[in-house]
Amino acid sequence: MGFSVTATHLILFIAAITIATSIVGIVSETADMLKLGMQKKSLSAMETIETDIKILHVDPSSHTLIYVLNSGSTIIDPNSIAVFLDDVWVDFTFGIVDRSTNIDNSLWDPEEVALLNTTAVSSGKHK
Q: Residue 75: what pLDDT?
């Protein structure tokens, strides 16, 4: 074997190493992106599982008053709440009945009772 064959093998070897390095970089970046996506989805699922409310009482007076307990372990932003009653999105006002000692009183803390004041509905069962 002459020098030309050795040089050709060396060039092919360097090219193979370069291509392999590029592929490893791409696969590594893709794996990192997948890991990040899974972490975000996991955090979102955990927050959903830890968020829970219980309807304590409904007073169907001239305005329907709904007392709701934040029975989960997650602090809830009142701006993220919606009321869906009888297949219709209902406008409401939100207030906390008895505030906790939390510094940020704009949020609905665990174990706090909220009062949702909606438009009047007839008595009986609703979905």
A: 87
With contact defined as beta carbons under 8 Å apart, do 111 and 69 qualify? yes
Tell me the pLDDT band of 120, cut-offs 50, 70 and 90: low
Could you give the CA distance from residue 27 to residue 9 in angstroms, rounded to a whole number?
A: 27
Distance CA 63, CA 47 (A): 32
CA–CA dist 70, 73 (Å, integer): 8
Regarding whether 22 and 80 lie in a shared domain, the answer is no
Place of tokens 């074997």: 1
With beta carbons less than 8 A apart as the criterion, state whether 75 and 44 touch.
no
What are the tokens at 123?
């008595």
Domain span including residue 38: 1-50
Counted domains in the chain: 2
